Each structure stands twice: as C-alpha cells, then as structure tokens.
Amino acid sequence: MKKYITIYIFILLTIKALAAPEGDYGKVPLFFRKTESPSTEKADSIMKLVISSAIQYENLLSSYETEIYIKGRAEILKSNALIRFGNLLFPVNRRNKDMVFEIVSHSRFDAPNTYFHEFEAINGSSIPNSKKQQEVLNFLNLNVYSSTAYNDGILMPVAKNAFTHYNFNLESTEEVDGFKIYKIRFLPKQWSQKLVSGDLYIMDKWWTIDKIDLNGRYSFAEFNLVMNFSRDYQKFILLKTADLFLRYKALGNTVISTYHTNFNFKSVEWQETERPKRRHEKLDLSRYYRLSSDTVPIIQDSAYWVTKRDIPLTAEEAQLYTIKKEETNAMADTSEAMKYLRFTEKLTNTIHMDFNTTRIRYSGLLNPFQLGYSGRNGVTYRQRFRISKTFADDRQLRFQPEAGYVFKRKEFFFKLGADWEYLPERRGALSLTAGNDNNNYSSEIMNDINEMLQDSTFTFDDLNLKYFRHYFIEVRNNIEITNGFEVSAALSYHRRLAVKDKNNKNVNDDDIVDRINDRYNDFIPTIEFSYTPRQYYRMDGRRKEYVYSYFPTFTIEFGKSIPKVFGSTGNYERIEADLHQSINIGLLRRINYRISGGLYTRQKSTYFADFHYFRRRYFPETWNDHIGGVFNTLKSEWYNASNKYVQGHFMYQSPFIISKLFKRRTSKHILSERFYYSHLWTPVLPSYSEIGYGLGNHIFNIAIFAGFEKHEYQSLGFKFAFELFQ
Predict the structure, then answer these.
(1) Largest Cα span, the chain
(2) What is the pLDDT of residues 135-144, one digit of tens each?
(3) In a 3-state reduction of DSSP, which class is residue 28?
(4) Which stretch of DSSP H or E encloses residue 173?
(5) Helix (H, G, I), strand (E, B) or coil at 301
(6) Is 712 in contact with 686 (CB distance < 8 Å)?
(7) What is the pLDDT at residue 658?
(8) Torsion angles phi and psi, residue 17, rounded to 5
(9) 458 near 575, Cβ under 8 Å?
(10) 3-state SS class at 144
(11) Is 654:670 a contact under the CB 8 Å cutoff?
(12) 99-111: b (≥16 Cβ within 10 Å) or e
C-alpha cells in the first residue's frame, strides 16, 4: 500500500480553503469584516467587491488540523482496442470497468508550508492506477480565491483581470439562514481551455463565496466541480464539501470519474494581519512533509466507515463492494487478450517502475510521443532511459542513456550519461558523458567561404564541404557557491573523423580537401560561471531545486584547447556568454528572451566552430516550450561558417493572440499561443532573422517559421513536437 500514499498526498498537502463543523477556530482576523452593499445590485458591482476581497482571503490560513474523507468512483462507459493507450492520456484501469474506494486521513498544516499526515484507512473494490489517480485528484487542488488554478492552467473568475475575459450576470437573490446570497453566472467572452463557466454564490456584505459550481476543460477531461463553504462567521472561506465529476473522451473511449470529499476540522488558526505578497519574500519555497507510517491500513469494518461517511453509500456503490478484487484480477490475468494488451503497452507506453530507492523510466520502444518533425530535418525519433538510485542524505546516482535518429539527414545520435549527486543541498554533482554530436567542417575552409560570399549567387552547394563525424567524452563537476551562483568545471576530449563514402574514400577530392587532415583531436578544459540574483528554490528533502527568479540568469563560459594532451592537435580559446529570463507580464501571459554570443580567440591551429548556445538541435528539448530559443530554418552549414556570433531570441506567450478568430471547435483545444522572433549576426552572415507563430496544448506544440536574410525572404519552416511526456 506504500504506493497509494503518493496517490493521495498531493491533494492533502495543497488544499488551503478547508472547513470544519465543530472545534476550535481561533481568533477571526480583523480584515474578515463586513462592508456595505453596492448602491445598485448589478453583477459587475458585486464582482468588484468579491475580487477585492479575494486578494485578502487567498492566504489567510496560518494553521489547521482536519480529518478528510474521500469517496471515489471510476467507470469505463465506452472502450475499444485503443483503450490500451488510454493510460497515456487519462486515468483509466482497463482491468476494472467500475470501481469504488474510500480514504480517511488526518492532516495538519503549519505555516509556512509545513505538513504532517497520518493516513488512517483505505478500502474499496479496487484502487486505480497511482499516477493517473493522482492526476484526477489534482482537480480538487483549487483555491477559489486564487487568480489562477491548476498551475496557471485556468484563469479564475475572481482574478484581477477577470472582466477582460468573463461576462457576469446576476441570476437571482435569495435569503438563506439569515444571509442574503447572490447567484452570479459567469461565462467566458471567448471559448478557451484557459477559461471556465458556471455560477458563483456570493454572501452579501462579507463578499465571500458561499458556493461555486464551475465547468471547464482541462487536459483531456471535461469537468464539473461544486464546492460548498461554511456560513458560520468563524468559518468563512472554509470548505465543507467538494463534488467533482470528470468525463474523459479520447480515442473512441469514454471514462467517467466522480469524487466526493468531506472536511471535518478540529482547529483553525488565521493570520493575525494581512500579509500581501511581496517580491522580496523568503526565497525558500519548500513544503515540508512528514508521514506517520509507510503503509495505509486497509480497514474493511463496515461500522468504521459508517462513522466516517457524511453521506451513505448508494445501493450501486454498496454492490460494488461485494465484488472481490481477487476474482476480478484472476479473470483479467487468465485472458489471453489482456496478456497481449499488457505486452503491447510495454512497447508503446512510457514505463515507470519504482523499487524502494530505485526508479526506472523508459520512453517505450514504439512510443509515438517520442516523434518530432521539422521541415529542415524531417522526422526525428528519440529513445530515453533513466535509472536513479537514492542513497543516504538524498545523494543520488543516475544513468541517462539516450539515442535518436534524424530520418531526413540519415544521422544517428547517441549519448551515454551518468551523474553522481554527492551534495544535493548545494546542487553538487559529478557527471560523465560520452556520445556523438553534429557533423561539421573545420576552420580551414572558412577563408574560402568568406571569399565566395562576395559573389551574391553563392550557395554552399558550390563547395564540396568536407564533413567530420564528431565524438566526445566529458567529465564535469557542478557546485553551488551561494544561492543562485554556480560554478561548473569540465574536462572534455573531442575526436573528429572525416566522413567516408561507400568506397572508403574521402567524400571530397579537391584542392581544399587536400589541405585538410582526416582526423583531429581536442582536449579542452572548461570553466563556467552562472548567476541568478534572488533565486527562489525549494528543498525536496535535502535536494535543492531552483524554481524561478524575477531577475535574469547570466552565464559565462571559457574553454581552452591544450595541444599534445592525449594526441590533441587543437590550440585555441573559446568564450561564450548568455543572458536569459522568463518574465510573467500578467495572468497567463509571459515573455521569454535569450541573448548570447561567443568567439574563438588565439587560433593557433585548425579548430571547429562548435559553440554551446549557437548550434543545430534536432530533438525538441529547449527553452521550456520544446520549440523556441533556436533557429528553425537556418541552413546547417552556417553554424560552422564563422568564428564569432551574436544571437537574440524573443518569445511572447498568451492564451489569446489570434485564437479568437478560430472556430469554437478548434479554439477549445488551444491552451496557449506563441509569437517568436530571432535574430543572428556573424561576420559571414551579418543579418539573419526568423519570425514564427505557434500554438499548443497538453499533447503537442506546432509552429511555422519564416527566415529572412537582410530582410529578404529565404525559406519557410514547419515544426511539430509532442508535449506529452517530454
């Protein structure tokens, strides 16, 4: 049962708007006060007061202690042969078409971000898949007074800019338990997965939410969430019950899940004064968790569960309890069809396995979500394997082999990596990496390129460029000196071999090629400094993880090739610098930028222009969105044509750029849109720029780019990458 702890920990750790029927509720905060009603009972006037109050109520709780009861049910209403891919997209256990379960937990919270949990009991006809079950429970992680929900996935109707995206209408006014309650309907002005619809029930004079009934779409689910709050003066904003309905429809399959949650608080303490969010808060954003045991007791005593339920089981749910899990699983295991489906899942799905302190992740041999496409490189396919072993004090040993193939270029890439994280609280890690990299050509040919560039009709096809295969091995150590400031030192050895044709001859046989050797070796020590002012972080046990900063990250790297070490022929220096930042400019809107440059100096030998930040990337892995931050239509030959460069990349992201022009059937599948602009300067290519537009959702990112040289159109590019499991 240990794995089930992970299933439920997320919801128990993160719900902040909770409730209690009886107990000690502490001193009610002074800013929990009445205000006069608006002069006119109009929806907009009421919502202005609610939005103003939401800013105060979002972070009111100082501590609490509660008992939480959860009842869940999942049903497969419609299925076909593609259901074996279903667990890639939504929470489903195809072995159990109808299941019900219950959980009781004791939870305590102390600000800031310290949690204690004692899982008291679990029971049910079966338990759904742990990873996907956790994904479902995330829907209950909703603070109704927050501007956004689900990791900024949805803009709430109480956000500061809600009037920009929502229409509000006063549906009715009624008196309940001596309170005047307004029912306000909210509807999005344009259809988007980022917006929801439904009803808010607002308490007059207090301007708190008595109830919220909202409908939306998140990931692959259509959902309805109803949350009821206390009407007791000492319990305002505290949640009493929550009911969640989810409908997943994908690949011709339909799965429905329902959840009922009841909160029974023993005590609540409030913040004594308002604590508005400030930019210069404590940098440690950690949440500290502690569990009372490693297992969750299975309690089948019906009398026990009767005392915990706030509503009884339905006749249908009670009947499900009579179905023995052993009989269900035995039937599934003896089915040849099921055995075949389980085998195919291992080939097509991402595989996750945990054995105590060892974790294994594999992308799946025939997993379609490892595919990518671009007009310049064609189809790409990647395989990744991850093994990690955790030791005392959260030290960790990781193996990270991966391989990929670029079909259009007929090039195979591989990388074998291992990391030993020896000082996790200081991000100290020693790594060893070996593999191959982009084929390139040497500096010997750059002078010829510069001369031929004087001809306006020059193309790289005019040259028989001699390419070299590139293999490398690197040892690197990274350590944090102080928060946000890291130093990395590396020793790398590079071996470049001239590409041969089928007759085992050099690809080229002209005057230029005659001047070039068939192999070059480089031994390069490198040191790198990276600094981010006021870096926010969180601690996962003893392991430190950087989260975000309001300031840019600056990196400078210096490398020198030393001759006559392990046969090294290189004798030159390389310097690169990079500045990048991600700026939140409003709810659900963001600007990313990256500026970098580099050059080779003291060039006393042949070298290969192999920059760290300016290079070809075949596989989607860069700049947060798997598409931006690189040039997408630039010909590969330009990356090696100069000994210096300066580049800039800009991306603007918003859920609403031009999607409002799309039909509702199309726009409802769009989560975000992006505008891209990139510019490059090199001595041989003094002005090259790209503009692009992209859109994406939980499954994929897609973008189109246009390249310009000196403002003259050159080429059009298209890029596609699966977002899922990247």
Answers:
(1) 96
(2) 556 676 677 8
(3) coil
(4) strand 166-176
(5) coil
(6) no
(7) 78
(8) -95, 90
(9) no
(10) coil
(11) no
(12) bbbbbbbbbbbee
Query: Tokens in use for 688?
Result: 């090259």
Please state the pTM of the whole predicted model: 0.72
Residue 587: strand, helix, or coil? coil
Encoding tokens for residue 330?
A: 């035995």
User: Strand 61-78 vs strand 700-709: parallel, antiparallel, or unpaired?
Assistant: unpaired
Say how far apart CA 437 and CA 419 lie, in whole Å. Answer: 20
Report residue 566: phi and psi, to 5°: 55, 40
Q: List the one residue out of 226, 239, 231 whose CA is nearest residue 177.
A: 231
Cα–Cα distance measured from residue 106 to residue 70, given in angstroms and rounded to the nearest whole number: 12
* Residue 512 phi, psi dihedral angles, 5° rounding: -65, -45
Token pair listed for 466: 């001699």
Question: Could you tell me whether strands 700-709 and 197-203 are parallel, antiparallel, or unpaired per DSSP bridges?
Answer: unpaired
How many Å is the Cα radius of gyration of the chain? 29
Pairing of strands 114-124, 148-149: unpaired
Question: Which residue bears the tokens 């919502």?
Answer: 47
Q: Which two tokens stand for residue 581?
A: 């930042």
Name residue, tokens 């009841």.
Answer: 262
Q: Which residue bears the tokens 């209950």?
A: 140
Query: 389: Cβ–Cβ under 8 A, 6 or more apart, which residues?
Result: 357, 358, 396, 397, 398
Spatial contact of 155 and 332, defined as CB atoms under 8 Å apart = no
The answer to whether 560 touches 524, Cβ cutoff 8 Å, is yes
CA 86 – CA 123 distance, rounded (Å)? 25
The token pair that represents 543 in the structure block: 């392991």
pLDDT digits (tens, 9 = 90+) for 443-484: 877 767 766 765 556 666 666 677 889 999 999 999 999 999
Instruction: Give every strand in the sheet of 288-291, ordered side by side.
Output: 166-176, 179-188, 197-203, 209-218, 221-229, 239-250, 253-270, 61-78, 98-110, 114-124, 288-291
Q: Cβ–Cβ contacts within 10 Å for residue 420, how many?
A: 15
C-alpha to C-alpha distance for 321 and 75, rounded to whole angstroms: 14
The structure tokens listed for 170 are 């006063």
Residues 6+ away with beta carbon under 8 Å from 666: none
